[in-house]
Specification:
alpha+beta, elongated
Amino acid sequence: MWTTILDIGTLSTMCIGLGLSLLTILHFHDATQLKEWYFVPVIIFLPLLYSLLSVSKLVFGYVCLYFLLAILVYHYMNRKFGRLYFLLSVGVIIGYLSIVERQISMSLVLLICVNGILVYLATMAVDHFNISKLLKTALSAIVMLGLERLSGYFVPRHTPFTFKATMISAIALLIVLAVIHYFYVYLTKRQAMIDELTHKANVDELTELYNLYHLHQDFSLEQINKTMLFIAVIDLDHFKQVNDTYGHTMGNKVLKVFAEQIHQYFIRELGKNNFTLYRYGGEEFVVAIKQLKDTPIRELFAQLQVEINQINIDDLVEQLSFSAGVACLKAYHHDPLKAFEAADRLLYAAKKAGRHQTIVEQIC
């Protein structure tokens, strides 16, 4: 009995350790490049699966639960990685048994391939069920255990074929699934907290636009800088007077309405993927424009001025207007900081000239 308990503990601990390692790494894996997308998951997975096969063969005398890691990744992380891991699992199992046995029969190779295909098809089918991830994983694992037991009748040297062996695998599997699911729930909650903190760090609370921190982050990315055409700095005219006359509550309302109007205008005129709008600070905003449609840049801001002039806010007598400066990235070799400084100088020239206007750099 104690031997059985020890075997269950050994198998479950090993699978939990490998599963947690794999899910954690994949959770934080940022596949921004195609080469990295293939390279990192493969390099991570191969030694983990080989460890599972080696330890199970050494301790129990057979290999078991060899598609478990692929099932976990498929249901809990990423279907693409899961499919990749099913394919790799078949190759690693065949390669491992070839090393252990020096030579394996074609019938064993065929049996491993059929097992992999059947477990993958079952996993894919179960994934369409409207049930929890835990139940999906459990159903896929039951199919895997059934095929392992069936395979044991044909190759008893390599897979569990007795009731005791199947029981050890089944109990260990239950423990593994419970721990992995609890860890996934914990990881999901932690990620939600991280996402919330990231959102607060990058987004202005009042206007829901990107903030100064996010602007600096974007301006430091070379691939983003190369796609920019214009940088404009926009300042809401006479905002201090609004605050002094009506109070900060009205001031915040004016800023929010002003920001929403600008944002919706650029979405309509440029498309939501062709610009990025930031709140720079106070009543100043920055817009990075990637692509124009049919409207020239000067006319674009002239039309925006008209729409801002037409905003009506309860209890606010003054007409809203803005001053702006627009600079071209090409004039500064796509250096956004230099273009921003130029746009800022043009903004202050517009304010000095009487406000309620946009000054566009001549080269634009």
